[in-house]
TrEMBL record:
It comes from the Bacteria. Keywords: Membrane, Transmembrane, Transmembrane helix. This is DUF8094 domain-containing protein. It comes from Cryobacterium lyxosi. Residues 310-603 form the DUF8094 domain. Residues 219-243 are annotated as: Disordered. The keyword Transmembrane helix applies. The lineage of its organism: Bacteria, Bacillati, Actinomycetota, Actinomycetes, Micrococcales. The chain crosses the membrane at residues 187-211, 257-278.
């Protein structure tokens, strides 16, 4: 019976071990699923459609091959389409019938057949001569290489991949998409381990059976008594054999026989340590893919699913601000007007260009406060699918209190242009930014003539300018919060100091008016708005007596550098550009308009005609 059980154990062990090994060898599924496409034609851009990226589950490994430079980037499908605009491009998609990748070419839209298409900024971009997609602020991430680029991403629905070379040469033609497959064999481990246990049990049963058989062949001690036989002479006793002289024994045989299964068991145990060889009975899976940073909705913002997406993600804006910070630092040092114009516009650019001009004449004039690139403590992008786009952010370095907290308003005019700093403010120390939507939701832009606010955004600058001139006599005085408004105090003190320093032979007049820059307004959670506007201040100095002359004050280095005059009988005029950031409550609210931040700079100084 023991031999039968041993044979059965050997057979079952062999079957289980063979099945376990087969699962990891001949029956093992491939680790990757791959699809390839060869793009025909000479288009400059190739778009990998979301349908191709989601042809299989899991992370996508994208391999692009070509003859020269290769550029690869991913972004929202709408942004990729907007950047390409009317240029010819190829699309790599997925055929629902065959399950293979397909390649189709969309011809360029020319001036002859462009009638009826949208006349937005995206169409105008074609004439902008920007053909290289590298460095665009629209991309969530980009990669470059030569002859081959490979990257692994986890892209959700709504994200497309753009492939190009340099925008002049045709895009690379060879594209391969791969997805990691689940080729785990959860029962290979139990089969191998179970087979090893049965093999060991069979060997034990076999040894026990041999021992039992040997015992059964020994002479029996209790035999029936028969007739007594004559006593035979004793045979000589053999010499005793010491234990050390024994070369083989049953224990030795058993030990040798046991060596083989122990080696087999050890090998199988070592080979079965991988988690892919064992079933996972946990209630939650721990092997989840980490998604590539992309704009994705969350449970807390399900209600915003139908809203337009935010103009940028936080990670996008961090990259953008880092690039702008480095560029502005270099331009501020070298006084490079062309470089700074690639990332600044509007009143922020105007103020910096004036500072460069002043410092070129008089290096003793201090540069403007450097724009830090991080950390971003507040981000409010506009909800939009169109252009222009705006976004607001606040940069505050808590470890360096000498750097003021800066608020930045950036604007992107069209898909093929990058974000430019339009407004740049130093926040008031007591400023309290109202609650706004999270960055993954964004805020709608408020129209400049919106009447649902305490003051429409396009009337805000004029009302504040009137308060600077008339004070409490201004009709708008009661609409603005006076407490914490340091800019109003600063202007009043400076104007009083200038009047006190003026000689009796001269007069000075102050004026203020709304700037020509468009107001930027983003909604807050309480139906109010954060509004950025510009304002223009002028001071005109004239002689009052015939033959008298006037000139800039001795300490007015900027005025002298810009005007180039020391004395004049005609008089001169200084023009300042003010950048103002307000919180405007909703119409009918008992709250007042609060100044959140400001920046002021001399932009021109010239002799009167």
């Amino acid at each position: 019976m023991r031999f039968v059980l041993a044979i059965v154990a050997f057979v079952l062990a062999a079957v289980m071990i063979v099945l376990g090994i087969a699962q990891r060898t001949i029956f093992l599924e491939p680790a990757f699923t791959s699809l390839a496409s060869s793009v025909t034609g000479d288009t400059k851009y190739t778009v990998i459609d979301p349908s191709a990226l989601s042809a299989s589950t899991g992370s996508q490994t994208i391999n692009v091959r070509g003859d020269g430079a290769i550029f690869l980037a991913y972004g929202r499908s709408e942004d990729v389409a907007a950047w390409i605009a009317d240029d010819a491009y190829a699309t790599v998609g997925l055929s629902e019938k065959s399950g293979e990748l397909t390649s189709t070419v969309t011809d360029a839209v020319t001036a002859d057949n462009a009638e009826g298409t949208s006349g937005d900024a995206a169409t105008a971009d074609v004439a902008a001569a920007i053909v290289n997609p590298a460095g665009s602020d629209l991309w969530l991430e980009e990669y470059t290489g030569t002859k081959s680029v490979t990257t692994t991403l986890t892209l959700p629905e709504g994200i497309s991949v753009l492939v190009a070379s340099d925008g002049i040469a045709p895009a690379p033609s060879s594209i391969r998409l791969s997805w990691a497959s689940d080729n785990s064999t959860p029962w290979a481990g139990p089969l191998l381990a179970g087979g090893a246990v049965l093999l060991l049990a069979g060997l034990v049963l076999y040894v026990l059976a041999l021992l039992h058989l040997r015992r059964s062949r020994r002479p029996r001690r209790n035999v029936p008594r028969g007739p007594r036989m004559p006593r035979l002479p004793r045979a000589p006793r053999p010499k005793a054999i010491k234990a050390s002289q024994i070369t083989t024994s049953r224990r030795g045989i058993a030990r040798r026989v046991a060596i083989l299964p122990m080696i087999v068991v050890s090998g199988l145990a070592l080979s079965g340590c991988s988690a892919d060889l064992w079933p996972d009975f946990s209630t939650t899976s721990t092997a989840t893919a980490t998604p590539t940073p992309t704009p994705q909705p969350t449970d807390s913002v399900e209600a915003a699913a139908e809203l337009p997406p935010p103009a940028v993600t936080v990670s996008q804006l961090e990259t953008i601000m880092s690039e702008i910070s480095l560029l502005s630092a270099d331009a501020d040092t070298t006084l490079n007007t062309e470089t700074i114009a690639t990332r600044f516009t509007g009143p922020a650019l105007e103020q910096r260009l004036a500072n460069y001009k002043i410092r070129a004449v008089d290096p003793a004039v201090a540069p403007l406060v450097a724009l830090a690139g991080a950390p971003l403590t507040f981000t409010l992008p506009q909800q939009t699918n169109s252009w222009p786009r705006v976004v607001m952010t606040v940069i505050q370095d808590e470890n360096n209190p000498s750097i003021p907290t800066m608020a930045v308003i950036l604007k992107q005019e069209s898909p093929r242009t990058n974000y430019h700093v339009q407004y740049l403010f130093a926040l008031e120390q007591s400023a309290h930014v109202p609650k706004v939507a999270p960055a993954i939701v964004g805020a709608p832009a408020i129209a400049p003539d919106n009447k649902l606010l305490l003051l429409p955004p396009n009337e805000l600058a004029a009302a504040y300018a009137d308060i600077l001139l008339q004070g409490e006599a201004s009709p708008s005085f009661g609409l603005f919060e006076i407490e914490g408004d340091n800019f109003r105090v600063q202007v009043a003190d400076l104007n009083a100091a200038k009047v006190a320093a003026l000689p009796s032979t001269a007069s000075i007049d102050f004026a203020a008016s709304a700037g020509t820059d468009e107001a930027v307004a983003l909604a807050t959670n309480d139906s109010g708005s954060i509004v950025a506007v510009s304002m223009t201040e002028t001071e005109t100095v004239k002689p009052v007596d015939a033959g008298a002359t006037v000139g800039p004050a001795a300490d007015a280095l900027a005025t002298k550098a810009l005007s180039g005059i020391t004395t004049t009988a005609k008089g001169f005029q200084n023009t300042y550009r003010d950048q103002l950031l307000f919180y405007v409550p909703t119409a009918g609210s008992s709250d007042k308009i609060v100044l959140l931040g400001f920046a002021q700079g001399l932009i021109t100084s010239a002799e009167l005609p």
